[in-house]
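Quarterly update from the structural biology core.
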Amino acid sequence: MDELAKLGPVFPGGPIGVLLIHGLTGTPAELSAIAKDLNRYGFTVLCPLLAGHCRSEAELLKTGWRDWYASVETAWQAFSRQSEAVFVGGISAGAVLSLYLAQRHPGQVRGLGLYSTTLRWDGWSIPKFSFLLPLVLRLPVIGKRYRFEENYPYGLKNEKLRERVHSQMMRGDPSSAGFSGTPGRSLLELWRLVNLMKAGLAGQQPPALLVHARDDDIASIRNALYIKEHIGGPSRLVALESSYHMITIDQERKKVGFESARWFFEQLTDAEKKKLAASAKNPELIAALSEAGDFREKPRSELLKGLSKRKHWLRGGRGPAAGCLSS
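Predicted structure, tokenized:
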């Protein structure tokens, strides 16, 4: 465990592991609630810190997608040496990194947990002219200086938590709430990774759980539907009705934790399930997974119903500006 602890927060459990990856400009803390829930079921969970994060924007700008992926690869190698089976998951850009890792290690990732997968920024708080960003960011002078400022509602529907995150950002504490903005160059790097990942999506086989809020303010549920419709392996899409982008810490985080544990449990062999049960904090938790009823997945038409009528979020005169990003 000492080797893992050098990479990020570790939640020790049994021999079945879950590697959870935070988002661009985010922190491992945005996954701590889900990590603790999975650990209660008996999983060992590792939340590695991505290169350039939790220090300063200058440090982030020294890194690109290859550096972020190298952090994930290092964690994967170390974790795999200590686990009998490893699931991989992440939020937003972390979900993209999870998919890319699985492509680089065919047949080795037991399954995926993809939370608020972000391929493009089309949520209801994003300005309509955001489709021009790829052009703006490639301009020699403007592109290098462009920066996306975080704006309300910060991906959070829970008002108390939202105010706390806002306060942490205003104090300039990147280790607890991430950066208050995202450099345009970092976003360009992420888009390069998204394109690489999408190119290999059809041949990807690990069973994938997608959890996405229908009211996602940053990346609409169309992002999750794209993955589901193009990924090569089996998948399940869980749609949340009372959360925004940061579903791992928002109002339905307990549901995210349960559905993740259930999906991972379903992918295990009988022998692995027994080992997980032996590490669980309470036998009743495993019983709940075993006895959970069949999951009913909503049809595409139902998931998209009403999305085109979403309005920009406005409150107290503060609405989404030109740079609203939580990836």
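The radius of gyration is 19 Å.
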